Amino acid sequence: MSCEEFEPMVTGYLDGELAADQRDRLERHLESCKNCKRELAELTTLKESLTMIKFKEPPDEELERYWRSVYNRLERGVGWILFSIGAIILLCYGAFRLLEGVIKDPTIALVLKVGVVALVFGVVILFVSLLRERLTVRKVDKYSKEIQR
Asked: Cα–chain-centroid distance for residue 121?
């Protein structure tokens, strides 16, 4: 077997996850291969270094501030989604009511009716998306105060 076939086994060997036959094959290969032996030594050193690293527990105030910001972002995201869905439904309903005469007219082809409805729904969705984007960007646009509109 070539070194490439043994490379994935080295980390499993380090973690003690190899079956006995795989471990024996790898150990025999390591006896004759300097590159794989060096890689195992480097990974062993790295693993030992990583086990010495201690996690510093953040202060309670920092954790509370973090979770508050996570909840705020989640709430805003859900709020924007619900707002967008509601706006799309209301605007599509209004557009449908305006186009009801065109839709019910038996002299207009079905393909044209479907096209008009798809066009209106697409415009409504794009309008709501653009409005949401502009409202979001307006808050963080650093040049909006520099340019008079």
From this structure: 27
Q: What residue has token string 């105060």?
A: 145
Surface-to-core class of residue 95, CB atoms within 10 Å of its CB (0-12 exposed, 13-18 middle, 19+ buried):
middle
Question: Tens digit of pLDDT for each residue in 61-76?
Answer: 888 888 888 888 888 8
The two three-digit tokens of residue 37, written as one number:
């032996």
In the chain, the percentage of residues whose pLDDT exceeds 90 is 3
Whether residue 149 is predicted with pLDDT greater than 60 in this model: the reply is no
User: Average model confidence (pLDDT) for the chain?
Assistant: 84
Which amino acid is it at 46? L
The number of folded domains in the chain is 2
Q: Are residues 130 and 64 in the same domain?
A: yes
Q: To which residue do tokens 């207009």 refer?
A: 108
- Residue carrying structure tokens 């002299």: 107
Q: With helix as H, strand as E and coil as C, how does 73-86 read?
A: HHHHHHHHHHHHHH
